[in-house]
Amino acid sequence: MPPGPFARFPSRPPVRDSGRPASSNGASSFHLVWTVPPVPLDEVSTTFELLAEPSVEQLYFWALQTSFVDGSTPRGGAHLGLQWHPSYPDGRAVNWGGYGEVGELAGSSSTLPSRLENANTRDYRWETGVPYRLAISSPEARRWRGTVTDLATGRSTVVRDLFSTGTHLAAPMVWTEAFCRCDDPRVIARWSSFRASSHGADIPIGSVRVNYQSYAEGGCTNTTVRRDGDGFLQITGTERETPSGRVIPFS
After folding, report:
1. Are 22 and 168 contacting, i.e. CB atoms less than 8 angstroms apart?
2. How far, in Å, CA of 117 to CA of 139, rounded?
3. What does the alpha-carbon distance between residue 212 and residue 38 come to, in Å, rounded to a whole number?
4. Cross-strand bridge partners of residue 96
5. What average pLDDT score do residues 17-40 get?
6. Contact 201, 248 (CB under 8 A)
7. 18-28: b (≥16 Cβ within 10 Å) or e
8. Fewest CB within a 10 Å sphere: which of 85, 102, 183, 240?
9. Helix, strand, or coil here: 95?
10. pLDDT band at 4 (very low <50, low <70, confident <90, very high)
11. 3-state class (DSSP) for residue 89
């Protein structure tokens, strides 16, 4: 029997799988939010590996992010990660920067040069297909260090220290931020070996929660997260397989 004149059909979700993201900063982002107990953290780390690199001269940023807290009071946050950055040597850089209660966080001088003389973004010739350990730790009170370790060579590089009134870390996550067109060729990043500690003791990370920048927020709708053995893939330019809000436990 044909539908009546007032029959309602389920509306299809809006799609943005071509053209540029419509977000305020021109990027489409998606995240893996860690599920950790509510304890004060003093170090977080993860391993990042780019499996399929960009083929366009647009900024891509893959980072480990954490908030700073003093007791239960938020004191800003920061992100440590690698960038595909057209303005840096061989299009590659590292970034360790963040925000406090008012504006950007100050920090120590970096031993790494910076093509754009940016305090947060430094020259760093990372390679596709090589795993890198990203670690945020505190060498002394209210001083937070970003370190990148090339796991192929074992060489560790301190990017610099950030100064924060936060005494501990909270709410860790990893993310991809892509400033490319939604229909640019796919890029695949892999995250694994998530670790958090409190007073030197490992804190269990039970699962991750998937989050995407929504269509209403300007994000591309053709990004996805996929489980990959003991890690997770973040993929651009592909059909979405895992919905936003999905919680994926660690085995």
Report:
1. no
2. 25
3. 24
4. 80
5. 96
6. no
7. eebbebeeebb
8. 102
9. strand
10. low
11. helix
Of the candidates 25, 29, 10, the one whose C-alpha atom is nearest the C-alpha of residue 214 is 29
Give SS3 for 90: helix
Q: Is 91 helix (H, G, I), strand (E, B) or coil?
A: helix
Domain 28-249 matching CATH 3.20.20.80: the answer reads no
Residues 6+ apart with CB under 8 A from 133: 45, 46, 47, 147, 148, 149, 151, 193
Q: In what order do the strands lie in the sheet with 73-84?
A: 121-123, 92-99, 73-84, 60-70, 168-178, 28-35, 207-212, 247-249
Q: Amino acid identity, residue 50? A: L
Tell which residue, 142, 148, 149, 147, has the closest CA to residue 169.
Answer: 142
Backbone angles phi, psi at 90, to 5 degrees: 60, 20
Model confidence pLDDT, tens digit, residues 61-106: 999 999 999 998 999 999 999 999 999 999 999 999 999 988 999 9
Element (DSSP H or E) covering residue 198:
strand 188-198
The candidate with the shortest Cα–Cα distance to 48, out of 82, 79, 97, is 82
Cα gap 78→221, rounded to integer Å: 26
**Percentage helix, strand, coil, to 5, in the chain?**
0, 50, 50
> In whole angstroms, what is the distance from residue 131 CA to residue 150 CA?
7
Quick one: pLDDT at residue 2?
Answer: 52
